[in-house]
Amino acid sequence: MFSNWRKTLFRLHGWIGINLGLLLFVICLSGTVAVFSNEIDWLLNDDLRAEATDEPIAWDEIEASIDETFPDGVNLGMYAPLEPGFAARAYVALPDGQTRKAYFHPKTGELQGHTSFFNTQRFFRSFHRRFFDGDRGIVLVTLMAIPLLFSALSGLLYYKGWLKQLFTVRRDKGRRLFGSDLHKVAGIWGLLFTILIAATGIFYFTEVVFTGTGNYQALHAEPLPNVPAETLPDYGGRATMLSAGVLADRARAALPGLDVRGVRLPLGPTDAASVTGQMGNPITRDRANEVHVNPYTGAVLGVQRSSELGVVPFITDAADPLHFGYFGSFWTKALWFVFGLMLSFSILTGAYVWVVRSEPSHRTAKADREDGLSLRPFPWLRGAVVSVALTLVYCGVVVSSTIDGIQYYAPQNTGHVPVTSIANGDLRADLLCTKPCDLQDGSTMALRFEGKDMPNPKAVTLTTADGDTISLNAYQQYHRGEVTTAPGTAMTLSLATWDAPPVQKQFEAPSPVPDDQMTTAAAWPEAAPGVWWVVGGFVLLTVSSIGTWLWGVWRAFQSSQSKMQRKRRRSTTPRPDVKLPPTA
User: Which keywords accompany this UniProt record (predicted)?
Assistant: First the structure.
């Protein structure tokens, strides 16, 4: 009975390798490169480099540089250097739809350069997470963690005395035993790593399920308080925000010992400023330690400590550092990289070894009465051919989605069409329509307020002639929403403040912008030149590895067929020294 159970485990181990090996290989290899993707960008782009310093981050100077460089941009967050020698960074959303990555000297706050959101880190994290294939891709990738875990555990339970095989690699016993030994040694040494990667991957799949069912917050701690809506009238039409440096100081006072790693300013009047960082527990993400600060008064609204998180929220914030190995700086990432390579290529070698050792026995060959090539020696190969074919077809889909995903980060061929202006008290704003401004099919209209302080209107609405009311949601100095109506339709813009009655402005919905007035977008995002070489090298390595694997499987299949044919010929050809009985 125990023997049958072990044989079942072996068949499960081999089935996973031959049917899902290609997909698991691509996922694991891309994740392995993603471990050092930030360091690759550091090597390729001088703007990411800055001398290491023990002085506090110049948050105020970084914020001032952002305001000067991107007067129409939205500051999405400022972050400390990832490692000593890295520059501080910030993300800025521009009116044309781009998100720029800007890099600053951490001591002086001086801008060192800025690029599109696309770089090596973005490519490998997005590709590894979802193949640039939206919800379908992320479900598929995270779901693959389950067979990866089964494969690791089934291999462990099948092999006897695996501790004795930690250093056993027989080079003089043929390719089959050499490949088998390499596969076993890599699997044994990387067993705990593989289980960790599979376990965190399964947790990512759980996140996908919870998100899809609208229960994502169940995996997190209770959200920290924001600015009470009832206090908004106290700040007037334009709420003056405290500087990023003051907000960071207030957070340190509320959470002594906090190493501030990020400052995110509010996007709307009721949003709190969020200050995140580390407090002696690097196994969790920076966001596990968070302080919400009222951006207008500096009052602390709420504090979250990683040491006080529940089990599930703690796992949520620990999964990413454990999955990519960045909790221990360079050396843990180096270890993760080595084990990741071992895991990636052991998947392919294991599948190849399964093919080779599954050659038919003499009894199987004797039972096969068909001549020529046959799938009989590999009964499991019928399903494997289909699964491998489907995997290769999906790889074609991935190529298309990856190209589209990369182009998404290129500058958009959009601008804004001025529609009308409105003023009420100290609030003045221009209503803009995003090109091509085709309201018939739906387009974004944004009310852009002047100045850098937080606009704090009581209400902003658009009303069509049919009586449909559209609320424009706050997004720092913008209030915007999706509008669908016919060109030329009468519309009314209403702007109300806390201490003055609403002001209304009537106008006609604009017509779409003609094609000859549209700007031409770049086909590919701006990136350091070496980024494309890295992406191309990864594609070449992946394709050549898969091609080599397919060639090896086919050679093993052909070898098996040749052996079968030779055995059949020997079994049907009489030996020379054997006398045949006389015929009647």
Answer: Membrane, Transmembrane, Transmembrane helix
Q: Collect the ranges in the chain with pLDDT lower than 50.
A: 1-2, 360-377, 380, 584
Q: Whole-angstrom Cα distance, residue 568 to residue 559?
A: 14
**Torsion angle in degrees (nearest 10) through CA of 417, 422, 425, 428:** 10
Write the DSSP string, 217-279. GGGSPPPPP---GGGGGGG-SEEPPPPHHHHHHHHHHHSTT-EEEEEE--SSTTPPEEEEEES
C-alpha separations of 33 from 104, 117, 274, 285, 338 in Å: 26, 19, 31, 20, 10
Q: Exposed, middle or buried, 76 (CB in 10 Å: 0-12/13-18/19+)?
A: middle
- pLDDT, one tens digit per residue, over 165-198 is 655 555 555 555 555 666 666 667 778 899 999 9
Kindly report the pTM of this predicted structure: 0.86
| Contact partners, residue 558, CB within 8 Å, separation at least 6 | none
CA proximity to 46, closest of 101, 15, 90, 86? 86
Cα–Cα distance, 464 to 417 (Å, whole number): 19
* Edge-to-edge strand ranges of the sheet holding 459-464: 469-471, 459-464, 490-497, 500-508
Q: What CA–CA distance (Å, rounded) separates 501 from 494?
A: 10
Three-state DSSP state, 287: helix
Question: What integer pLDDT is reported at residue 377 of this predicted model?
Answer: 45
Q: Length of the chain, please?
A: 584
- Nearest-angstrom CA–CA distance, 416 and 72: 12
Alpha-carbon dihedral sign for residues 228, 233, 238, 244: negative
Which domains, ranges and CATH numbers included, belong to the chain?
Answer: 1-45+119-221+317-411+556-584 (no CATH), 222-308 (3.10.450), 416-515 (2.60.40)
